[in-house]
Design goal:
Layout: H1 2-11, E1 20-24, E2 27-34, E3 42-49, H2 58-73, E4 78-80
Parallel strand pairs: 3-4
Antiparallel strand pairs: 1-2, 2-3
């Protein structure tokens, strides 16, 4: 949580571009976030899967959902990972 607070302090907080937790079967399997607010219609995403879930498809699902959220907010953006 402290790294997320640092990120917001450095780049600002924008409600859609926040960190998310990935929950599967009542367990937190990972987290994902844009690395900074949208700039020039471009956003870099970051995500990780916790060690016990590395063999699942959690990372793929997290990236897919984050991209969906991003395009709902700004359809013409470019996303990099």
């Amino acid at each position: 949580m402290s790294s997320t607070a640092e990120l917001y302090a450095n780049v600002g907080y924008v409600s859609l571009w926040i960190g998310y937790l990935a929950i599967e079967s009542n367990s937190c399997v990972g987290m994902w976030t844009p690395k900074s607010p949208l700039r020039n219609n471009r956003m870099e995403i970051a995500y990780l899967t916790f060690l016990d879930y590395k063999e699942s498809y959690a990372a793929t699902c997290m990236a897919k959902v984050l991209v969906q959220i991003a395009f709902e907010g700004v359809p013409e953006m470019t996303i990099v990972a």
